[in-house]
Design goal:
The chain has about 375 residues and is of the alpha/beta class. The protein is built from 13 helices and 14 strands. It binds phosphoenolpyruvate and manganese (II) ion.
């Protein structure tokens, strides 16, 4: 059950409603959204009539929870401002898509500084890089930890780029927070509910990656944990899922991007790097992601890709990154212009008896006649 108090509610009435719910032994959470303040009743309240809640003073609407993800569908921010290290950008909400780039892992001061400045020159707005690395093998490089975050912050400051980095446990959040502008939840941790709950208590944006075998609905439920904590700045990330296909590391599920954009108002970005696992595929997949409506890309980039400590095969060079940034502008710009034109112009139909010809058919019939 959700009780909406509308925009700028009477705080005294809100307190009275909270007291009434507590008296009825119902658990609840208050969430302040852009256009309304909501009380989400989290304990089972189906046996109460909706009338009991709608008559509470101050309540403007009562919504029964038909969905398990009311906040992920409607409650989060659709446009998120990311700022840090003297840089700032907006993501989502019909804006030109953003490109976030950087190495899989922070390796050294020289490496992260070189990648950051090259990524900046290529047109990336945010710097990614892992300091706590979730590696499949415990024998692989595990990341530089907090020292890596400090190096990344320095590189971000030198290039006015906010930084995005992964945290893997609730305990890592407080020490990492001074150095991170956007928290990343990795695919392996999408089901780490204690981590999600703690990120819900933060007031910094979170990029939530889809689990390797997670459904769209499970991704939205994971987002719901963060949103329910009051952190409304969740950015969803499609990064490929595990399928029977072996020619790529994972299968980039672009249909999930379109589905998420239809269902939810949260920004959606695409990580082609972990989806493909191969550098040659990053540019075409990036193009496709923008064409299907992604609000941004997050791409592993290295000044010497083959020497990357981790995920070397999928790292691209800064010059490929620059090409992708141009692709993003061209594709987004062309589709926007096309959509605006088709909204204002009348649909073209030919006067052929008994049939309606599409614009494309008319062009082809013109060729045939001439
Ligand atoms: C990463 O971004 O470096 C990473 C480990 O990604 P994922 O969690 O999607 O595998
Ligand atoms: Mn990686």
């Amino acid at each position: 059950m959700i009780l909406s108090f509308g925009h700028n509610p009477d705080l005294e009435l809100l307190e009275r409603a909270k007291a009434a719910l507590s008296e009825a032994a119902l658990d609840f959470q208050v969430v302040v959204c852009a256009r309304s303040t909501l009380i989400i009743v989290t304990s089972d309240s189906d046996h109460f009539s909706g009338h009991k809640f709608s008559t509470l003073p101050g309540v403007v609407k009562v919504v029964r929870l038909g969905s398990r993800t009311p906040l992920a569908l409607e409650g989060g921010r659709s446009r998120i401002e990311v700022s840090g290290n003297g840089g700032k950008f907006l993501i989502g909400g019909e804006r030109e898509p953003v490109v976030l780039a950087g190495p899989c892992a922070v390796e050294s001061f020289e490496q992260i500084s070189a990648v950051a400045s090259a990524a900046r020159v290529a047109g990336a707005q945010g710097l990614r890089g892992g300091a706590y690395k979730p590696r499949s093998s415990p024998y692989d490089f595990q990341g530089l930890g907090i020292e890596g975050l400090k190096l990344m912050q320095q590189a971000g400051q030198a290039n006015q780029m906010p930084v995005i980095s992964e945290v893997m446990s609730p305990e890592q959040i407080a020490p990492a927070s001074p150095y991170i502008d956007v928290f990343q939840v990795g695919a392996r941790n999408m089901y780490n509910y204690e981590l999600l709950k703690e990120l819900g208590r933060q007031r910094k944006p979170v990029v939530l990656k889809r689990g390797i075998s997670a459904t769209v609905d499970e991704l939205l439920q994971a987002a719901e944990y963060i949103l329910l904590g009051g952190n409304l700045q969740v950015i969803l990330c499609e990064r490929g899922i595990r399928t029977f296909e072996t020619s790529t590391r994972n299968t980039l599920d672009l249909s999930a991007v379109a589905v998420l954009k239809n269902l939810s108002n949260l920004p959606v970005i695409v990580d082609p790097s972990h989806a493909a696992g191969k550098r040659d595929l990053i540019r075409p997949l990036s193009r496709a992601a923008i064409a299907c409506g992604a609000d941004g890309l997050i791409i592993e980039t290295h000044t010497d890709p083959d020497k990357s400590y981790s995920d070397a095969g999928q790292a691209i060079t800064p010059s490929t990154l620059a090409q992708i940034v141009q692709d993003v502008r061209v594709i987004y710009g062309a589709l926007k212009t096309h959509d605006e034109k088709s909204q204002t112009s009348e649909p073209v139909v030919a006067s052929v008896p008994g049939s309606v010809m599409s614009e494309r058919e008319q062009i082809f019939s013109g060729y045939r006649q001439s």
